Amino acid sequence: MQFQRKSNIGKSNFLIKLLIKFALIVFLFFTILILVDQLNFPFPNKKIQKIIPNANLKIIK
């Protein structure tokens, strides 16, 4: 009796590869998010306020 090798990869190997790719994408996303969070972006020193008069507001019913 000869040994017969199964050449079909099967669904389990496909699922494992898919989960690894998904985990890698999630890891890269969170790594980029943490790196961007650590950057110090400049922000305005004074508060910007724009007063909108009541004449410009329209009430939609």
- The proportion of residues in beta strands is under 5%
Number of helices: 1
Assign the structural class, choosing from mainly alpha, mainly beta, alpha/beta, alpha+beta, or little secondary structure. mainly alpha
Largest sheet: none
Poorly predicted ranges: none
Alpha carbon gyration radius: 28 Å
What's the rounded overall pLDDT mean?
Answer: 81
Counting DSSP E segments of at least 2 residues, the number of strands comes to 0
Shape: elongated
Distance between the termini: 84 Å
**Roughly how much helix do the residues carry, as a percent range?**
40-55%
Pattern of helices and strands: H
Characterization of the model:
- It is built from one helix and no strands.
- The protein is mainly alpha-helical and 61 residues long.
- The chain has a domain at 10-41.
- The protein is elongated.
- The relative contact order is 0.06.
- The model has no long low-confidence stretch (mean pLDDT 81).
List the helices and strands and how they pair.
Elements: H1 11-38
Quick structural gist:
The chain has 61 residues and is mostly helical. It has one helix spanning 11-38. The protein has a domain at 10-41.
Primary descriptors:
single chain; 61 residues; mainly alpha; 1 helix; elongated
